[in-house]
Design brief:
Layout (H helix, E strand, L loop, with lengths): L1 H19 L8 E5 L1 H4 L5 H10 L3 E6 L4 H8 L7 E4 L5 H7 L14 H11 L3 H17 L6 H10 L16 H14 L6
Parallel strand pairs: 1-2, 2-3
Helix pairs in contact: 1-3, 5-6, 6-7, 7-9, 8-9
Length: 194
């Protein structure tokens, strides 16, 4: 078993090293780990091997809510490794751990509570940061955490940005679903400054 995992780690490292070396050395590269979709988890040990081999690998986007792993990533390169979680609902926790930000789908529709969470955290206003994180979570839940892009598109339309409809085989929301979404979003807005 040890040989199998060691071989797998080396294959993963080799792949990422090959990709990182395909661009100029001064071109910053982020690794990406989304184990729930890729079926191929990128461990901190492999990420460290890649970072050791490629100085242009400066960080990772990690799209799984395992904050023990986030901590492991934050220790790469003696703590000089950028970690950007993709878990919108844990943005404030990520900042508190030392992450630099979040790669957020929901913030593409409602950036305001995420920006306010970040700014409040940077200003050491944890009360406001917690409040705005809760607002961000409400938007995440209303938009189904990005599991159905038609919710993003309809929310953008409700904000006055017509991005068109879904392409087949995806389907648009029904009129009733749009009305339910609008009601949910309107119930969030008064509680925030967005």
């Amino acid at each position: 078993m040890w040989f199998y995992w060691n071989k797998l780690d080396n294959q993963q490292a080799w792949y990422f090293i090959k990709v990182a070396n395909s661009v100029p050395n001064d071109f910053p590269v982020y690794l990406y780990n989304i184990p729930q979709c890729s079926s191929n988890d990128l461990t901190a040990e492999v990420a460290q091997k890649v970072a050791d081999s490629c100085k242009n690998v400066i960080g990772i986007k990690y799209s799984y809510p395992d904050y023990l792993r986030v901590n492991d990533y934050l220790n790469i390169n003696d703590g000089n490794f950028s970690v950007l979680p993709g878990t919108d609902r844990l943005f404030l926790a990520a900042l508190a751990m030392g992450c630099e930000g979040v790669v957020s789908g929901v913030s593409g529709v409602y950036p305001e509570p995420f920006v306010e969470t970040y700014n409040a955290f940077k200003a050491n206003d944890l009360e406001k940061a917690r409040k705005m994180q809760k607002v961000a979570i409400q938007y995440c839940e209303a938009l189904l955490n990005g599991s159905n892009m038609s919710y993003f598109k309809e929310a953008l339309k409700l904000r006055g940005i017509d991005v068109g409809g879904m392409r087949s085989p995806q389907i648009d929301l029904t009129e009733e679903e749009v009305k339910e979404l609008d009601d949910k979003l309107n119930s969030i807005r008064p509680k925030s400054s967005v």
